[in-house]
Amino acid sequence: DIDVIRTVNQSCTNGLFITAGPTGSGKTTVIFSQLYDEVDRARERYNEMKNVMTIENPVEILEPRFAQVQERLTPDNKKLNMDAVLILETFLRQDPDIILFGEIRSRDDADVATKAGQTGHKVYATVHANDCVTTILRLLDLGVSKVSLLEQIRIIMSQRLVKLLCPHCCRDYTLSKTDKIILTKEEYDILSKSNLKTLGRPEDVANCPYCKGSGYLKRMPVLEYIVFNDELRDIFMEQQIKYSAINEVLKKYKFKSMWDKIFDYIKSGRIDLGEAIGSVGNKTATNNIINYLAR
C-alpha cells in the first residue's frame, strides 16, 4: 500500500491528494510523513529544496522547513483577517512546490483546495469521512463543481489506527451468536476455523511485562485508497450516483477496503474481532442485523 501511494505521489506533480478518516485516525501524521518523504527525496536525489507552504487551523505539527500559516478570522476588523482565500493568494506569489490544506470542513475550504490544485500545484488535504467513497460524495455534497473537483483529485486515502493484541497475554476467542449476526456467512465460516484471539484475562494483562498491563503492543494503521482514472470520474459525474456501480468498478481494479485488509489480521489472531469492528466497521453488519430482525 505504502509503495503504491508513494509511486502516485512521485508521478503526479499537481492536483489533490486527500487523506480521510475520523478524529484521531492519524491523518495529519500520515500527510506530514508524505511531505517529509518528498522533501527528503528531492534533497537527496536532486539537491533541490522543496518550497512547502501550509494553510492550517490550527497548526498541529510544527516544522521549521515549511512555511506554516494559521487561519485567523476576525470579523470585527477585516484588516486582520487571514482566511484561507487570502493566504492562498499570498502563497501563489511565492512559487510553492507543495501546498498543505489542513482540513476541508466547508464549501469555502473545498473551493480553496480545488483552486489551489487548478493552479498546477500539488495540494495535500484532509477530510473527516468514513472511507474513500463517502469522502468524494461528501466533497460533492459541499456544492463544489463536480468538474473542477473530479478533474483535480489524484488519490484518496482513508485509514484507521487499530490496536495489535499482545501475543503473550491474549487468550483464545470463540465466535458468539452476535458475531454470527454481524458477519456474513462466508466470514463466519472462515473465522470459525481460525485461531482467533481476544484481550487476555485482567490478571494476565496486569502482570504482563511485554505490554505493561495494557493488553496491546502498539497501534497499526489500516488503510484503503482509490487512485482516480477516467472511468471512476465518469461514474461520479453522473446525476444519480449508485453505490453498486462504484463498487463494481472498484472490484474491477481489485480495490481492497479497510475491512478486507483487517480481516486477515483477525484470522491470524493479531487483532481482536470486537476491536476491528469498533475501529474499522463492517459495512455489511447493518444489513445483516436488519435482515435478522426482519425474520
N-end to C-end Cα span? 41 Å
Trace the largest sheet across and list its strands. Answer: 3-2-4-5-1-6-9
- In N-to-C order, the SSE pattern is HEHEEHEHEHHEEHHEHEHHHHH
Uncertain residue ranges? none
Structural class: alpha/beta
What best-fitting shape do the alpha-carbon axes yield?
globular
Largest sheet: 7 strands, mixed
Mean pLDDT over the full residue set: 87
Based on the model shown, name its key terms.
295 residues, alpha/beta, seven-stranded mixed β-sheet, two-stranded antiparallel ribbon, 14 helices, globular
Characterize the structure shown.
With 295 residues, this protein is α/β, with parallel strands linked by helices. Helices cover 45% and strands 19% of the residues. It contains 14 helices and nine strands. Strands 3-2-4-5-1-6-9 form a seven-stranded mixed beta sheet, with helices on both faces. The chain has a two-stranded antiparallel sheet with strand order 7-8. Helix 10 (230-237) packs antiparallel against helix 11.
